[in-house]
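To: structure desk
From: M.T.
Subject: fold request, one chain
Message: Could you run this one when you get a chance? Sequence is below, nothing fancy, just the single chain.
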Amino acid sequence: MLKALKKEFFQHLSAAQAFWYARSQAEYMKACSFTEAWDEYKTRNEMHLYMHHYFFHSLDDEIKSHRIYYKQDQRGFGEDAFHAMWFTLLNEFRPTKCLEIGVYRGQVISLWSLINKRLGVESDIHGVAPFTPSGDQVSVYLRNIDYHADVLSHHRHFGLKVPFLLKAFSTDDIAINHIKSNRWDLIYIDGSHDYEVALADYQICKEQLAQGGLLVMDDSSLYSDYKAPMFSFAGHPGPSRVVQEFAMKELLFIGAVGHNNVFMKT
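Reply: Done. Structure tokens follow.
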């Protein structure tokens, strides 16, 4: 009983802090691209605060509604700031060949499609996932969902083009061959949080990233200087080790929002 009360108290406190961070602040009202924002605010905490503020004060209602929809009924994870991150990234770099590893219920790939539709960008969006409740060392997922049908239903809800979905683990040969068959402008690694799998995903994706392409690692700021507010999360050990030990040395780091780290292949 006490544990449940503590959890409820923390949730209320976290929501109150998120509301306070979202209040209108003149210093964050600047209309920045992703790279301009990183240039302007410089620290991970300031960048996260800028994107959180951007969500509430600069993002259009359709994209905000997408986030609200996915926050209901455990449809998606992440943070409000990430919708602003994706909008500023896609608006600035206009990637057309896009891949997500680890789709869950389709929040990110449907957001990409929605943003590109609003920007008038023709994009080819792919997702690789087992579409089962398979978890890892730190994650447990809902078991009563047909994940493949679920992703398609959410795309229909927003009137979006159906993406290419490959039902496989990212380490399966069919997935590896599919990743190798393309040069990608944008890859989001959001699959298994186990170190060995996250590293394997990173290594193959780094090789198949187009020149000037973007690679975003989810859940990967645990060993950075990001001090997560109560409503945010710094990441898991596996992806965070991959970023610290490999990505920071092998790719160009162009910024971070919360536990998402963004790199470019140059």
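Reply (cont.): Residues 2-21 form the longest helix (20 residues). Let me know if you need anything else for the meeting.
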